[in-house]
Every structure is written in C-alpha cells, then in structure tokens.
Design brief:
Number of helices: 7
Radius of gyration: 20 Å
Order of helices and strands: HHEEHHHEEHH
Mean pLDDT: 83
Shape: globular
Strand order of the largest sheet: 1-2
Helix content: 40-55%
Structural class: alpha+beta
Low-confidence stretches: 13-41
Strand content: 15-25%
Length: 170
C-alpha cells in the first residue's frame, strides 16, 4: 500500500470514528453499552451486545412449557426498549397482547438481590414462577432462598425496588 493510500484510509477511519462519537453523544444514555432504557418505568435486563431481553429466551415458554426455550430470530417483538424472542407465533401473540403478564418481574433482576438493595441481573436458566409472575435469579443459592420464603422475598424486593430502580435509571 502506498503512503498516499494509507493516508486516505487513515483519514476515512478518523472521520468514521468522529461521526460515531458524535452520534453517541447525541443519543445520550440510549447507546451506552450495558444500559437499556425501558419505555416504561421499569429497567429491563438485556444482553448489552444483542439488545435481547433474557438473552433471547422466550418469556411465554416458562409459563406454557414450564421450561426455558430459546426464541427464534424471525419471531421477535419490541417492548420496553428491548427485543424479545419467541419459540412460536402463539407465544409472540400472547406476549404482544399482555406483556406485563409474561415479562420477568423486576425487569429480570434477581428479587433476592433487590431485597438487599442491590441490582443483580437474573440468569434465564435460574427461574421460578410465583404468584403468576416469572422471577429470574443470579445464582442457584438465590433461587433456593426465594423458594424457602417466596412471599417474604417478594415483599422485601418490592420494598427496595424503587431505590434500586432509581440507581438503575440514568
């Protein structure tokens, strides 16, 4: 590669980087890695690389199939500023009709951690349904602690959720 060609390539790369930085500054917190702002008052856990809620697992499958199932890229629905994937059309339609029924409570954050005043993203493979709501957990220990006293854990999480949510919201 000639010196002139290297110089042109370098200038193009610098211009593209400057444009990208400008877009990020204009967009503000929306483009911050690992930070997904929800359209509602709840912050929703999403994969910071893909923007997928619960790492692409179908939230309806937890209720219908009693197990986590990966959703398909062609079956997506955008809600609360994140993308949700589904295993089939019926699950997507059910979610679209009433997302609050199927979304993980506390935006997918671990209720045990929230009860202690902290935010820890839940893992889609560590889950439990209680009181017709889906809860995700950071660890097997947290899921076990929740199982010992679900009502107490939910009550503690609901009490601390506003302060945790304030810390999560930009």
């Amino acid at each position: 590669m000639t010196a002139a060609r290297r110089e042109r390539k370098s200038r193009r790369l610098l211009a593209m980087a400057a444009a990208l930085i400008g877009l990020m500054l204009l967009a503000g917190p929306t483009l911050q890695p690992g930070r997904i702002d929800a359209a509602t008052t709840d912050q929703v856990v999403a994969n910071r690389h893909t923007g997928l809620a619960i790492d692409g697992f179908d939230p309806v499958a937890y209720f219908v199939d009693a197990e986590p199932k990966l959703g398909r890229p062609g079956l997506e629905f955008r809600h609360a500023a994140v993308t949700w994937r589904f295993a089939n059309e019926g699950n997507r339609a059910a979610f679209a009709a009433d997302p609050d029924v199927y979304m993980p409570r506390f935006g997918g954050y671990d209720p045990i951690a929230i009860g202690r005043g902290a935010a820890a993203a839940g893992h889609p493979g560590l889950w439990r349904i209680a009181g017709r709501r889906l809860y995700l957990f950071y660890s097997a220990e947290a899921r076990s602690a929740f199982g010992d006293n679900p009502d107490g854990a939910i009550e503690a999480a609901e009490r601390h959720w506003p302060e945790v949510l304030r810390a999560l919201t930009p």
